[in-house]
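Quick question: what would this complex look like in 3D?
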Amino acid sequence: MTLTSMRSGDSANQADDRPSREEAEAAVRTLLAWAGDDPAREGLQDTPARVARAYEEFFGGYAIDPVDLLQRTFSEVEGYDEMVLLRDIRFESHCEHHLAPIIGRASVAYMPTHRVVGISKLARVVDAYARRLQIQEKMTAQIANSIEQVLEPSGVAVVIEATHHCMTTRGVHKAGTTMVTSRMLGCFRKDAATRREFLSLIGNPPAQGMV
Ligand SMILES: [Zn+2]
């Protein structure tokens, strides 16, 4: 995947075909009526405007380019080439199948070669992808791939553990279940000791088959 294709990728709908705010609010009124309520009653009158504003927040990631976020790097690292890990990055996302919340934590590590990035940027990259319509597997891969492409480290590891409200509050109604996904690239994939170190640092015993 090239940097250019990563840029365009999911942000394709920023152009002229994007509906207006009025159209978005009308769509919310339709859903309120479909749910069986009266969109004109007092308590619901401002709801479409509030939902539109909430969507701007929930899905603000489409306006953020993770490649840009990662491009400001520091090269004066005095030869530091050990693992850089930001763990337990809390995020909120929404599943692309039901628009239901996905609430979780991501741990992101990379093994720098010649460049490091400000640590807060790793959290911002997680948010940039979380604040889109997602499936957890794709989000995990997107975070790892963008770090690999821009920083060119010798390895990247991303582990995400999340609760999917489409599964806990509807459907099979399995409260308390979490889903874990991981993406290991470079030395984290090839070298079992490096992967073990990462997994122990994030507090997970290495899962069977991963070591
Ligand atoms: Zn879902």
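Answer marked as accepted. The mean pLDDT is 90.
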